[in-house]
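Two proteins were folded this term; both appear here.
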Amino acid sequence: MNQPVDTFDPLFLGQNEGFSQYQTMMNQSIETLLNHASRQTYSGKSRHDVHQDINRSMDFSTNASWQDVLDETFNNVLNHTINVSHPKCVAHLHCPPLIPALAAEVLISALNQSMDSWDQSGAATNLEVSMIQWLCHQFGYDQQPDGAFTSGGTQSNYTGLLLARNLYVQSHFGINGHEEGLPYEAHTLRILCSEHAHFTIKQAAAQLGLGENAVIPIPTDDANRMDIGEALNTLQYLRQNNLNPFAIVATAGTTDFGSIDPLQDLHDMAQAYDIWLHVDAAYGGGVMLSDQYNDVLTGIEQADSIAVDFHKWFYQPISCGAFLLRDRHLFKYMKHHAEYLNPEEDELDGILNLAGKSTQTTRRFDALKLFMTLKFIGTEKLTDMIETTISTARQTAELIDNDSNLELAHFPELNAVVFRFMPNEMDHINMINRQIQQLLLIQGQAVIAKTKIRGDTYLKLTLLNPMTSLSDIQDILSDIIAEGQAQSIHINQEVVG
């Protein structure tokens, strides 16, 4: 027998006591967060102990007070997460979220709109469409552009290559790949990208049924940008060998170096060979707002599609990104009409259903947090944040370049700085740099990243946080040098012993 409805009160917002319970629980959650707001970059607790504590919490047979739940959760889980808002958390493209965006998240989660059809979202759909048009304008799309909010660069890159593949298969082999699948010639399809392009290009090729080997990595120049001459030679070789390049992926902000491929030259090449140009600007797209630096993106307005992330340089909580398409009509190469969701009749009646523009069905109302953030701080303040981080990165590079204990790998184009500690004895340089990264993390001194260049281990600072000062950087570099020297001595003593 079904239980009375009031048995579940107040577990939902629509019930008698729902809003009161919601307010109480939200206040308690905020209070718990504020009590621990000044924690270090990481608690230092071992991976094994964290895992053990969480396993001990996996008993759901009884219910507890919300405060007890919060206390246990914070002690066993939240207190041992990475503090991404700390100015010494400078490892990855992992931004500190802006407060207005966090406030917007409260509205997004409570409203729980689903962005696949208008009758599940109402005005939320209209806002996403308007935000996409605003973004398209920012990137120079001025004809009939379109797009959709995504979970991030992975989904956006996949969407661009999906459309590029289906368009090419239709126009060159007369096959509707969306309905009929891949033609026999699919094994000849190729994608060109920089050797430093994001791994999701290969991942997308695999998911599209082409295989990772369909991606041809192009060597880069001294600035870690795709070498145009090498790209042109590769295109000519592919055509001469009856292979079919159908897309070039340009990277506007490589993960390690922040390098930006020569977009105008790549557009000219793509146009000459009649293939799709997709720009992965998940990282570097934010620089479009900067009059001081946006010339590095010249040519992006001619790309067929663009990926841009807002949970990087726009300081939005994860996840929040967008896929932008220069010609809205090209969405037909992935669109599917479901009678219960986005029937063709709705489209003829002018009803906005967004399901046909995304590889997701259910999607969050992420456009709201970007909208509210921009309304609250304005584009000028956001631009100041972006430009501050670039300036800090360039000053950091100068500090590193002038220190004999450190070796700079490149001068930053955006705000990623790659370098390494240089011990007196070079035999164990990779081991020492790896240990530096690990020790700074577990000791809570700083969260920095490591990467490899031609097989050697380097350290990386990704300076997304505009609150990270040069003083913070000097502290981090001092800690790196101190740890490096200590590890060098320890290793030498072991060798001698």
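Next, the second protein.
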Amino acid sequence: MPVVRPSDAVVHEMHGTRFVAHATPSTGSKELCAWRGEIPAGTRAPAHTVSREEIFHLLAGELLIALDGATHRVTAGDTVIIHPGATLAVENPAAETAVSWVTTSHGLEATLADGTRVVPPWTD
């Protein structure tokens, strides 16, 4: 069983958020990706539509998650299931950094409101 040490994780930054990729093809994962997200206070990520299911678990902090137009206040310990084709936006209105753990399958793409397609490097 491969073990990914914190020093092996690859850090990416996008839209003011830090993504620390632990399980990716480059670390030996064949089907799934997993990363820790660090969302600073005051961050508002742009809405995007995802091509694959994501499981978003909040480890610390509080977030506002808009999912297909409905906004949910999510606190530490909550899990959000995001289905393929759903539109997602994340905002941290709190005074501290929120920390999440997210999993999805390889091949995830996100489409921004302007039509820009993004293949997040932490899922590739």
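The chain has a mean pLDDT of 95. The CA atoms of residues 110 and 118 lie 5 Å apart. These notes refer to the second protein only.
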